[in-house]
Each structure stands twice: as C-alpha cells, then as structure tokens.
Amino acid sequence: FTALTEFLDSLQRGMRSVERAESDAASSAEAPRAPMVGSPRAESAGAALPVPQFQRTQGPDSDGLPTITQLMGGGSGVTQTERFVLTAADPNDGTSEDKLRQIINAKYEAGILKPYNYVSGYARMQRFMETNLSRASIVRILGVVNTFRPTFRSVAAALTDIDLLLVEEGFERLLLDYDNVFNSFGVPACLWRRTGEIYKANREFADLVGVPLSFFHEGRVCIYEIMSEASTVNYWDKYGEIAFDASQKAVLTTCVLQTSATVRSLVQRAAKGLGDARPMSSSSIALKISGVADQPSPSQPGRPVRCCFSFTLRRDKYKIPIAIIGNFIPIA
Questions:
Q1: Which long-range contacts (CB under 8 A, 24 or more apart) does 145-151 make?
Q2: Three-class SS of residue 145?
Q3: Most buried in the list 99, 149, 202, 331, measured by CB within 10 Å?
Q4: Per-block average pLDDT, block size 10, for the chain (332 residues)?
Q5: What's the confidence (pLDDT) of residue 9?
Q6: Are strands 305-315 and 321-330 parallel, antiparallel or unpaired?
Q7: Rg value, the chain, Cα
Q8: Which of 247, 249, 251 shows the shortest CA–CA distance to 231?
C-alpha cells in the first residue's frame, strides 16, 4: 500500500504543476505587452492610435468598400470642382435618379452649373456664317432664325435666375439620360442645343464624320460646322417649321455631312497640344476614364457623306426646344 500511495501522490503533484503552468500562461497572455522603444504607443504612454472609419456602402451591387467620393469627401484640400469630378466618376450606390441628383448637385456646388448664354451661341453662329457661307444662304438662315428668336427671348426674359437654372438642370439630366441610349445605339447620333452646339455623340457618329469623339462634348463643335452649306440651310428651314408647333417634334430629311475647315483646324491644334480648356461634364469624365475619347476616328475629316437624316426636338416645361437629337444613316 505504501508504494501505491506514493504513486498516487506523485500523479496529484504533476496535475497541480500542469494547472499552475496553464494559469501562468493565461495570465501572461491577458497582460498588456510592453511597447517597443521609439514606437508611437511608447511615446504616447499607452494611448491608442486612431483608426480611420469609412461609411460602408449599402446596395445590391455593393461590395462594402468605400467609394472614391467617400474616401475623398472628408479631405479639407479637395475643391468643389474636384469633388464634382469624383462624384461624376463614382457616384454612391442608389437608383438612377439618386445618382443623377448627386452629380447635378455636385456640379451646382462647384459653380459649373449655370444658365446657358444663348446670345453667345447665336453670335458664334453669325461669325461662322460670315466666313463660311454665301450671302444668299446667310440671309435665308437669318430670316428663319429671326422668326422664332424674339419669342424665345421674350419667354426667357420673363424667367427668374432660378427658373433658368432649373432649365439648365433639365438639360443636364437629359445629357445623363442619353448616356446609356447612345452607348447602346448602333446608329450614328448626336445631341445639340437649339443654337447648334453639340454636347453628346456616340462613337458611330464620330467615325462617320472623321472627328475624335472627345470633340463632341461641351459645345466644342456645332452641328452647322459639320454640314454642307445646302444641308445647313435645309436644317434651319425644317427646324423653323416645327419650333413653335408643340404638336410636332420630329423631321425626316436628308443631309450631307462635311467637316468644315474650322473643325479640321481645331482637331489639328488639339493634336499639337494647343486645344482649348473647358469644364468637363460627367460624360467627358467617363470618356476620359475609359480611354474612348483618345481613340482616333478612322474616317477622313472633310469627306462629304450623304445621309438620311432625322432630328427630334426635346422641349422644356415652357415649350421651348432645349435639345435636338439627330440620327444619321449613310446612303451608299
């Protein structure tokens, strides 16, 4: 029995030593470690470092990561213009209407969204006609323009700055709406203001006229600058016939697309790094990001292209044409 008792006592002493070792290990694991010499924690006497917190996006297609606008939104060095660029490039998750509102609000806060000066648009058209069109064509076009321009001017004069700003907001919404339409539309098409400045086009249209797609944004090129003289006169005649008639909004006719020397010179200057600097719209930003705007067009600028041509008027709530969308089908 003595040997058995000593054997059991040795087992109990071994179990107690194992329990003390496990207890000491747990205590050392719970105790805070000494900070390394020279570390921020040692210099701050144990103060915890702040961890940046980002709001995680919530949405059906969200991966939970912060967007570009959320990462840059808190930076004090970000200007309103830069914030608009970031918002247009990467809006927060939400419906299409929410994204449109975000982009337009960011553009307004950046001071880019302003009522459009149509007077300068008519003055630009006048300068182009004086150097590129015959006297007879100028008289005919001005006769059409003078029939509806006073009415447009009187309506605009009765509007407040807020009303004009809302009209411009509607135009911006129209541009954003036509992003998907033009991207999925295989027919050459473009969108311009009632004074002719082109603000959107698809790749097929750029290839048709032989001008890089980046030139068909922010009014760098006008519709009358890429038409032959006879086609320009015909367009204004047809436009004048339906400008006042709210029951009509579309015209089907023919035209000859031919890039003028003014546009060819603009493209050549841009190729040499002498292009003009203009505020970028959301569409321009998307083209820059995708690299599409820098791709050259295969067609030769200045080559006449006969087309079946239709254009549709989009009006604002005051029944004034705010945008014209044209479709062009080449005729062999």
A1: 145/236, 145/240, 147/240, 148/240, 148/243, 148/244, 149/122, 151/244
A2: helix
A3: 202
A4: 51 56 50 42 41 42 47 58 72 74 75 84 95 96 90 85 85 88 89 96 94 93 96 96 87 95 90 58 45 48 87 92 95 82
A5: 60
A6: antiparallel
A7: 33
A8: 251
> Which residues touch 224 (CB under 8 Å, ≥6 apart)?
125, 128, 129, 196, 232, 235
Yes or no: say if 35 and 46 are a contact pair by the CB < 8 Å rule.
yes
| pLDDT for the residue numbered 22 | 52
pLDDT at 36: 42
Tokens of 43: 């210099």
Do residues 169 and 119 lie in contact, with contact meaning Cβ atoms separated by under 8 Å?
no
- Cα 7 from Cα 176, distance rounded (Å): 88
> What are the residues facing 324 on neighbouring strands?
192, 313
Closest CA to 263 of 200, 211, 313, 194: 211
Q: What is the pTM of this model?
A: 0.65
Q: Please state, in angstroms and rounded to a whole number, the distance separating the CA atoms of residues 258 and 330.
A: 12
Whether the Cβ atoms of residue 318 and residue 301 lie closer than 8 Å to each other: no
Residue 222, both tokens: 């006008």
Q: Beginning with the edge strand found earlier in the chain, give each strand of the sheet holding 250-257 in spatial order.
A: 198-201, 189-192, 321-330, 305-315, 250-257
With H, G, I as helix, E, B as strand and everything else as coil, classify residue 233.
helix
Residue-wise burial string across 276-311, b where 16 or more C-beta atoms lie within 10 A, e elsewhere: eeeebbbbbbbbeeeeebeeebebebeeebbbebbb
Q: What is the DSSP string of 255-310?
A: EEE---HHHHHHHHHHHTT-PPP----HHHHHHHHHTGGGSPPSSPTT--EEEEEE
Sheet strands (E) in the chain: 189-192, 198-201, 250-257, 305-315, 321-330
Quick one: tokens of 111? 């001071």
